[in-house]
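Quick one: co-fold with S-adenosylmethionine.
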Amino acid sequence: YFVSPEQFKENTVEISGEDARHISKVMRGKTGDKLIVSDGISRETLVEIIAIEAGAVTAAIVEQLEMTHEPALKVTIAQSLPKGDKMETVIQKCTEIGAVSFVPFISARTIVQYDAKKESKRLERWNKISKEAAEQSHRNTVPEVLQPLTWKQLLPTFESYDAVYFCYEKEEGLQLRDALRPFMQTLRSDRAPSVLLLVGPEGGFSEEECRQAEEAGAASVGLGRRILRCETAGMVALACILYESGEMG
Ligand code: SAM
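Sure, here it is.
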């Protein structure tokens, strides 16, 4: 369960709201049961339930655990907003695989509309899906789903990453694997490097967007000879990146 740092008291942790209800009603938790809680930043802690009600669980701290389930490479998925509930699939699956954050964006061929003022509920729902997937897959941190950006807003953010890969099915030269191998050689053990992975919408990226992305520092890369659905491409590329970095078992 993820708890905010304020929920940690000196020797106990207070769990409330939906998580407390989940522990008492769904998991049928009782005093003496052990749980793992995380502050989502740096602490993972083994705790033991000492008091339980539907809306509040108090647990005593047993021991601090090692943060063992986070990848050594920080991959952010920038996904041009797909139709229907496909963004939810991307968030759920990529959280399980090991993405650290998500940046939905609107590009030239994005079909769906997104009005930030009217759609805060959607962003809330995406973050809830990320939290549930993080719990399910025993992540130590919850990947954040950021407010959707326009293409113009996204381009200048490239410079804050160590590498940016623009997934482009029309790329005839560089394949992701070829781009990754030299990048992996530059990795140092004292700092987790950051990678931004860009995936287009149902209709793909335009040539103009490819040019702009390259100008902003991205490498245009192919993911093999088959065309993947927009909700599949991020999962595949993420798994390949983490595999190359030695993260996938
Ligand atoms: N029309 C299908 C759909 O509705 O999902 C396929 C869309 S594909 C054009 C969507 C995005 O996935 C592309 O913009 C690209 O980022 C990524 N993609 C899919 N297949 C790829 C490949 N073989 N190489 C690189 N990127 C790929």
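If it helps, The two ends are 24 Å apart (CA to CA).
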